[in-house]
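Subject: for your reference before the review

Hello V.,

The reviewers asked for a structural picture of the protein, and I figured it would be easier to keep everything in one thread rather than splitting it across files. Below is the amino acid sequence we used in the manuscript, unchanged from the supplementary table.
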Amino acid sequence: MASDQPIVIYPPGEDGGRRVRAGAHFLGMAYGLLDVVEFLRLAGLDDVDDDWMRQSALVEWRGGGPDTWST
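And here is what came back from the structure prediction:
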């Protein structure tokens, strides 16, 4: 995965899970910030951590920020 692709975290669903997409690729359903970090590491972004997720301009949080995991 190229590091310049936008990363979109969608609003929480009824079960609290949030869809995670990088560019055109669906990475999975996250139920916490650590899930998102792991998806991105598996996709090739080795230096991703909690702080990076909270501060990166590449991440678009929809329906709440990194601390929103329920409806």
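For the response letter, the relevant points are probably these. The chain has two helices and four strands. Helices lie at 33-42, 50-55.

Happy to draft the paragraph if you're swamped.

O.
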